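Fill-in record for ComEC/Rec2-related protein.
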Amino acid sequence: MKEWEHQANGFREYVKRIVASPSRSFFVVCLSFIGGVVLAAFLNRPIFEIPFWIFANLFLFAALIFPSRTGKMILWILFAFLIGWLRFGQTFPPSGIPNLLELSGRQTVIKGKIQGEVVVRTNNQEVTLVNIQTPDEPLFGKLLVRIPRYPTVWTGDTLAFRCRIQVPESKPGFRYDRFLNSRGILATCSYPQELDIRPAKNFSFSRFLLQGKQTMLDTLALVLPEPHAGFVSGLLFGGSQTLSEDLRGDFSRVGVSHVTAASGYNVAIFSQLLLLWLMRSSLGRKRALPVAAGFVVIYVFLAGATAAVVRAGIMALLAMLGTGWGRTPSMRNILALTAVVMLLLNPRLLFDDVGFQLSFAATIGLVLLASRFESLFRFVPETFGVRTSLAATFAATTLSTPVLLWNFGTFSFIAPIVNLLILPWIPYLMLFGSFAIGVGFLSSSLGSIVALPAIGLSSIVLHVVHWFGLLPFASSQIPFAQVFAITSAGGITFFLVWLSHRPRAQDIDV
């Protein structure tokens, strides 16, 4: 009985500390919002919004007038939780409005406008259509369409065609339907008939950016031979469509597919290394942070400012803030607020977008663990920032492992080795690749010469991936992989809590 009372008193003291601290209170409210999204995603069913709005407004009003700080805190937590639940419920097709799902399996005439980036593959183009219309009525939802490789289409173009509408289904090891749903895509259509392309007439800033990105990809293809051009383009802009199927399989088997995705994983590591270079230069800490942030913003626009690239840029900025400011409660709250804002815009990212999960996990690792791990790698030389890059890589990989286990159900036993062998060199490969593109604009011949370091590093990385990919035990299907993912996530969380209470001085003496 006394032990129970002691634990109850300890819990009350902990609650008092949270209530007394605006920083901790804000963090808990953010977690409550995320908790609402988690519960709604677990239930995964439409909701009747009116009761949610009524209770949410009641909690908000009560929180504003309630005299007790503890009472206010509880009401704010309830309000945030309901808003998270409500926001996820709003992602389902609204009832009473015709949507694409109603046309499943039917052949019909469709008209729509291309939104976002056109994904160019070897044999086709993938486009996402919005403002869908049939001869009878407009339809809610986006449509993913695969059309022939030529003629080339661009964002903003209008397509009209006849096609059979298909509802996406899950694939083994990949919830393809939920992945598309996280982007608002309800149905797909492959190789439509009677395709009519109507080019956009008005100026579009997104179209301008994406055309600029394509120009850079064309320049990269001029100064780098394959497969190096495809690999470097994946590092800089995301995507592995131009890599051979065998090479993509090697990347998957050794657990490094993430490096060819436009996620915060490699962009954050690159930007963090760039920031540390600038901080050690004559610029100093105060001026290095805005200069490095400026480079990230420029990258986002040059890469087309697609949703994935914008998220990668945000994660990179967060990682740089963590390095520039150090591990402070403010950084913890900035991470939490960023998650809340992103989930407000699209709550399905949390469980249905692996790129978002990897980006956020890697960013948390860079912010919370990179500086700690760097002290453990004192035996690694600082030349060219190898130690910093290795520590950042190890930190990002540690936090990303549960995400990979949960989503893909496989574990590459050699992934830690391969990651540590290749990831420290990825920032330099991105830097050399970017430099080659810049020079290639002026002269393709000169660009080919400048691209030699990028070709050399790319050859090393691709050979390492291929050699390890040949090993028969490179990758294994893990039974109960999601259980292992939860267990590893719990272990990492416990480690982070323990680390947060460990004095920095002791950390240096390891």
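KEY FINDING: Strands lie at 107-120, 124-133, 142-148, 158-164, 185-190, 193-198, 410-411, 476-477.
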